[in-house]
Amino acid sequence: MNCPRCNMPMDNVYICPHCGYEDSAARKVIFSSNWHYNQGLSKAKVRDLSGAITSLTQALKYNKKNMDARNLLGLIYYHIGEIVPALSQWVISVHFQPNSNPAARYIKSIQDDPQQLRDADRLIKQYNKSLEEIEEGNVDFAINRLKKVVNLNPNYVKAYQLLALLYMEREQYNAAHKVIMRAIKVDRNNITSLNYLKEINTKRGKAPITTEDRDFRIADPNPIVIQGGRKEDYRENTNGFSSYINVIIGIVIGAAALLLLVVPTITRTQTAKYNQQIVEYSAQISERNSQIDDLNTQVDDLTQQLKKYTGSGSEESSSTDSAARDQLMTALKSYLAGDLYEAGTKLAEVDPDSLSNEDDKDIYEIIRSETADTVIDSLFDTAYSYYDEGDYSKSVEAFVKALRISPSSTGSMYYLARSYQKLGDYTNASKYFSMIVNNYPDSQYYSDAKTYLSEVQKSDGSSDTSETSESDSTSESDSSDSTDSTSGTGSTSGTDSTSGTGSAYGTDSTSGSGSTSDNTGSDNSDYGE
Amino acid sequence: MINFEEELKKFKPSLEIDQAEESIFKNDLRDVTDIMEDMIKELKSSDLNKHF
Description:
By secondary structure, chain A is mainly α. Chain A has 19 helices and no strands.
């Protein structure tokens, strides 16, 4: 405002410092502002903070440059937890009066302690968060949060009021009473607090409870720790001996607690551990038992299979033995009946190796020796006819039978070997050629057997190539034919011509007389041993 | 009898620190002296209008 006379600025004064003009209007304004400031100050001193705020705000409405009023208003805001309004008032105050202004010191003290500012801001955020939780219906969370807020800032009047309101809504009037009384202790004439207190007292009056009963009968689910109490409630024990006794008692109680609580816990833990190990071992034992059962089952199965195979083998063997014995018995019957030819023929069907009984073998040998001369010619002729017809499989069977009756028959050996050779069975062919070469050097088949033995052995070594074998077999056939033909002409029978007719069985030097000229039957009578 | 919902509406969120600057600028700093000056200006302007 400027001086009405000299138009010079008049800052917070009613007498112009330049011309000395006293502005009565300005005087009234400043005096009114100061009066309200004094009212606010008086109310603040008796902790009527709401009334002080009203008066100081009024003082600033009269004179916005009343720095005392503005600074005091900031202090009151700061005291009741309203940090931002307090800072606003101080900043404006410093703006109007940068020098010699206590507000600058207030601001600086806050700037020097940023942690305090952060804590205050955190409390404000907590309060705002509780409001959000109430809107979301989470009243329990809001109550817990507000309790933390008022414990950290015991002068946060709005938080007290909100907490009391929530308690009232929950009809926890004793808790609400305690909370609102603390709010009133901070701000004595707060209208909201007084209204809540009145409501709480009304509700509590409906169910009158004495002070002593209230302390014991009503349990506050969300109690607030209120500092202080009657001094006589606590008495310092200054007796030294009693202290020692108490220490000893404490040690004893601690040891007892250790024995009663800790040791059983340790024991339980170990027991649980052992039980767990027992369970694990039991599981392992069960698993092993299961494996043993499986293995036993496998052993039983294998044993069963072994018995089965053993039984079938014996049956097969016994059946073979039985068949050979039956044939032997048939041959024996014919022999006893005097039919040597029939007996020899039947005996040729018997494989002596299949006879297990020694008596049977003896019977076989007796009949064989007695019937050999009778049936050998017939057996040889039959076998040779197969050979001559080129039916080498049947000739092999027939020559084997002839060899059973006459094991030293080089003719049977030779043509059996030839039959094997024709069939490509060089191993057996070599076997019988070798028998002649090794055991019967005087036989008429010796030279041919020796020749064929070398061929067969060569063929056996290169038997993997079937083409070569077939070629060799063809050439051998030709050679054999020529040999047979040569033999049939009697050119090689010089040493064999002395044997009897048709009964050449006995020595290697025997040969069928007259039959050597027969190209096909030249060897029929040559059964040299 | 206090209505809980109505009472709850009276509780507004407190201003946080980062809202301090905004709060300062929004502060109504007009006082009686400012109002008187405005009135005087209006009176002077009305007198001038009447005069002319």
